[in-house]
Design a protein that fits this description.
- The protein is α/β, with parallel strands linked by helices.
- Helices cover 48% and strands 21% of the residues.
- It has 4 domains: 133 residues, Response regulator (Rossmann fold, 3-Layer(aba) Sandwich), CATH 3.40.50.2300; 101 residues, PAS domain (Beta-Lactamase); 165 residues, Alpha-Beta Plaits (2-Layer Sandwich); 230 residues, EAL domain (TIM Barrel), CATH 3.20.20.450.
- The protein is built from 26 helices and 26 strands.
- Helix 4 links the parallel strand 4 and strand 5.
- It is rod-shaped, with a radius of gyration of 51 Å.
- The N and C termini lie far apart (151 Å).
- 36% of the residues are buried.
- The protein binds ligand C2E.
Length: 703
């Protein structure tokens, strides 16, 4: 018989007024390993229960005095009696007694006549069931404690989406009242889009047993809250939901996102944000068959402003530029993607604008024009009135490129091209540009090597004194013998050298070589020859310039008065105060200074006076039309008169004919230079000319 295991606790209270029944019951219980205590009537049963707290009560319904129903009811009132299993023993066909037994709280009943062999097993079964229930109760209490400890709201949903229960959490965004939920469908409780997503996830959770979550936003207490609902399959055909208010986490995430995606100086999206916007726009345009444009803007003179007015003003300018860009771009011109907007600062003075849904190329050009116009209005910053211009490059999707990095690179290339075309420009990308830039890059690599590889050399163009017809000086003109492309003229590589800063070492090499050559001629031909050397703006601004000049003179032994440095008006006007200081230093060394290409720039008389240079070179564009071009003739004559008024020597450049020389002679021009007097030539040719001149004096203009 004893195949069933006895439960751990096994004391049974047997209450029956019939001693035979009690005896038999005790015997049967002992058979299955249970202890029993007896009570002969209801009152004895109650007092015994109070003392012993048995694990089960076997209770006869009919007892004299206090009957079994009363005993059962009273036990249920006691502290330990609420959950103890009570089996009532009823008369065989007494259905009413059975009903009543359940009403007063009986767990089970046995009807007479008792099937004695199974009594013990029946009792054991009830004990085990009650044990399981007790464990369940503990688990349930445990679960409730856990749920009470966490701030989440929890609910159970039927597979159809009806709330089975709903326990309000105590988190900050607790929203829905239990009464609003239980028995209702999620679609009656939550806004339709949220309910739909919840239902989708509910189905998924029931199908897969995965834990799923749904994020949504709801207004609560006048504030928008973010919630996360996690859905878990309970395994009983229901889904448990835990809802947490994640508003704080979202706020933190937003802040982190802002920091990662925002340019801290201007507050507009940064490079990372722009790249993501671009990627997003690409996908959108690809799917929708739309076009868009990328504008790449760079300020033309930002570095100069930063260098001269300081970084503080530079920063203010960037902020003002970003604000102005913001105002300039109509909301319709831009997209707001990932919450970043489409205007971005990539770094430095580089800004980008994304123009989605482009109908025609002209629209992008139109935006570029508006941006340029906006930049041209002066900026009032920190007591300074600042003028800037912008160069803009534009690339188009899909014609220029199909991926974001190409589109950005091409817009940058086009911007570079716009700058090369004279700044304050907007240019569309074209594939030929890449070729040009490629060769530009190659040229730059080559130029870096040119100095080391001895590929640079100088030619010298004679400068002749009009009255004496003597060669009194030369201008040094640099050339680059490229190993593959042959001789490259300076106009093609000097701007690149300027841009890359290579002009400084190249210029120093020119200066030293020219000084050395002038000294060599002087020694060989026993005559002083003035050497004119071009100085570019970058060289002029180089703080080591005076030192370089002094060292070139010292190392070669050339007298300072035999070196003439040619500067353009543009170089001198760039930063007047610094210019004066540098000019003073150079004059202090004792070298001569002249203004090159005069007439093509500002041609300001007051500046000329201030700069106090020895000579002025009239640009060849004025000479080339002479003598027919009466306007140029008048200008040339006026320049000569003015320069003489300032005690300056005048050199006419680009003299190609005898008639031009004749006219210049009449105007009183002091020196002439040009193909008519001699092309830029190697040093040997100049040496020959000097030697010939030593022997006989040749008249300049023909008769
Ligand atoms: N049509 C015509 N042209 C004439 C005539 N006579 C001389 N030229 C050219 O006019 C230019 C005069 O030099 P620049 O105005 O200083 O203009 C120079 C100068 O600004 C720059 N450059 C040349 N060498 C150097 C250098 O060593 N350093 C720097 N920084 N710039 C240089 O490159 C420019 C061009 O130099 P090049 O090509 O050598 O061109 C030279 C010369 O060959 C003439 O009768 N007719």
């Amino acid at each position: 018989m004893g195949t069933l295991h006895s439960p751990k606790r096994g004391t049974v209270l047997v209450a029956d007024d019939d001693p035979v029944m009690r005896l038999l019951m005790l015997e049967m219980l002992a058979q299955v390993g249970l202890n029993a205590v007896e009570a002969a009537d209801g009152s004895a049963a109650l007092s015994c229960f109070r003392q012993m707290c048995p694990d089960l009560v076997l209770l006869d319904v009919d007892m004299p005095g206090v009957d079994g129903f009363t005993v059962c009811r009273e036990i249920r009132q006691m502290e330990h009696g609420a959950t103890v299993p009570i089996i009532m023993v009823t008369g065989g066909d007494d259905l009413e007694a059975v009903t009543q037994a359940y009403e007063v709280g009986a767990t089970d009943f046995i009807s007479k006549p008792i099937n004695w062999p199974i009594l013990g097993h029946r009792v054991l079964y009830v004990l085990r069931a009650s044990d399981a229930i007790a464990r369940l109760r503990i688990a349930d209490a445990h679960n409730r404690a856990v749920l009470a400890a966490i701030p989440d709201t929890f609910f159970r949903l039927s597979p159809e989406g009806f709330y089975l229960d709903y326990e309000q959490g105590h988190g900050p965004g607790a929203t829905l009242a239990e009464t609003r939920c239980v028995g209702r469908h999620v679609s009656e409780v939550l806004p339709a889009p949220i309910a739909q997503r919840l239902m989708l996830e509910l189905e998924c959770v029931l199908d897969t047993h995965d834990i799923r979550s749904v994020d949504y936003e709801l207004f609560s207490g006048g504030m928008l809250h973010h919630f996360e609902a996690r859905l878990v399959n309970t395994g009983a055909g229901e889904v448990l939901g835990l809802v947490r208010d994640i508003s704080e986490r979202k706020r933190t995430e937003d802040q982190i996102r802002r920091l990662a995606y925002c340019d801290s100086l201007t507050g507009i999206p940064n490079r990372q944000a722009f790249l993501e916007s671009l990627e997003h726009e690409l996908q959108r345009s690809r799917a929708g068959g739309c076009k868009f444009a990328v504008l790449f803007m760079d300020l033309d003179s930002f570095k100069r402003i930063n260098d001269t007015l300081g970084h503080n003003v530079g920063d203010l300018l960037l902020q003002a530029v970003s604000e102005r860009l913001h105002e300039t771009i109509r909301p319709g011109d831009t997209v707001s993607l990932l919450g970043h907007g489409s205007l971005a600062r990539l770094g430095g003075d580089e800004f980008t604008i994304l123009i989605p849904d482009l109908q025609q190329v002209e629209d992008a050009l139109h935006v570029a024009q508006r941006v340029k116009d906006a930049m041209r209005r002066p900026f009032q910053l920190d007591g300074h009135e600042i003028f800037v211009t912008a160069s803009i490059g534009i690339s188009l999707y899909p014609q220029d490129g199909e991926d974001s990095s190409s589109l950005l690179k091409y817009a940058d290339t086009a911007m570079y091209h716009a700058k090369n075309c004279g700044k304050d420009n907007a240019k569309l990308y074209s594939s030929s540009l890449t070729m040009q830039i490629m060769s530009h890059v190659k040229l730059e690599v080559g130029l870096r090597k040119a100095l080391q590889n001895d590929e640079l050399y100088l030619l010298y163009q004679p400068q002749v004194d009009v009255s004496s017809a003597q060669l009194v000086g030369v201008e040094a003109l640099v050339r680059w013998r490229h190993p593959e492309h042959g001789v490259i003229p300076p106009n093609e590589f000097i701007p690149l050298a300027e841009e890359t800063g290579l002009i400084v070492p190249i210029g120093e090499w020119v200066l030293r070589t020219a000084c050395k050559q002038a000294r060599a001629w002087q020694q060989a031909c026993q005559r002083p020859v003035r050497m004119a050397v071009n100085l570019s703006a970058k060289q002029f601004k180089d703080e080591n310039l005076s030192q370089i000049v002094v060292s070139a003179l010292h190392d070669t032994g050339l007298e300072p008065r035999l070196l003439e440095l040619e500067l353009t008006e543009g170089t001198l006007m760039d930063d007047a105060r610094a210019t004066m200081a540098t000019l003073d230093q150079l004059r202090g060394i004792g070298v001569y200074l002249s203004i090159d290409d005069f007439g093509t720039g500002y041609s300001s008389m007051s500046y000329l006076k201030r700069f106090d240079v020895r000579a002025l070179k009239i640009d060849k564009s004025f000479i080339s039309g002479l003598p027919q071009d009466s306007e140029n003739a008048a200008i040339t004559r006026a320049i000569i008169a003015m320069a003489h008024g300032l005690k300056m020597v005048v050199v006419a450049e680009g003299v190609e004919t005898n008639a031009q020389l004749h006219l210049l002679e009449q105007y009183g021009c002091d020196l002439v230079q040009g193909f008519f007097l001699g092309h830029p030539s190697p040093q040997e040719s100049i040496a020959q000319m000097l030697n010939r001149q030593r022997l006989l004096s040749v008249p300049l203009s023909g008769t």
